[in-house]
Design brief:
Layout: H1 10-13, H2 18-49, H3 55-78
C-alpha cells in the first residue's frame, strides 16, 4: 500500500509575494549593474595607468562612474537594499563583487 504524496502548491515552493519578488529582481539587476560598474572602473584605471586616456577622457570617465555610483546608492535606498545584499557568494570562488 502506498501513502499518498502531498502535492506542493506554488506558495509552498516559492515566495510569490509581489514586494519580495520585486525586491529580489531589483537586487539581481543592481548586482549586474554594480559588477559592470566595477569592471568599467578597473578598465579605466588600467587605461589611465597605461597612458592611453587624455585628461578630458579621464575626467569624463570619472564623472560618469561617480554619477552611476550615486544613482546605484539612490536605487538601493529606494528599494531598501544594503550594498552587501548585492554581493553573491560564489562558494569556493569567493564573492562576486570586490570590496572597496
Amino acid at each position: 500500500m502506498t501513502v499518498p504524496q502531498k502535492r506542493m502548491t506554488i506558495p509552498d515552493r516559492l515566495n510569490t509575494d509581489p514586494d519580495n519578488v520585486e525586491r529580489g529582481l531589483v537586487g539581481l539587476v543592481l548586482t549586474i549593474v554594480e559588477l559592470l560598474r566595477q569592471l568599467m572602473e578597473r578598465q579605466a584605471i588600467r587605461r589611465m595607468d597605461d597612458g592611453v586616456l587624455t585628461e578630458e577622457q579621464i575626467e569624463r570617465v570619472g564623472t560618469t562612474l561617480m554619477a552611476l555610483e550615486d544613482n546605484m546608492a539612490k536605487l538601493r535606498e529606494h528599494f531598501g537594499l544594503e550594498p552587501e545584499e548585492l554581493n553573491l557568494d560564489l562558494g569556493p570562488l569567493g564573492p562576486l563583487l570586490s570590496h572597496k
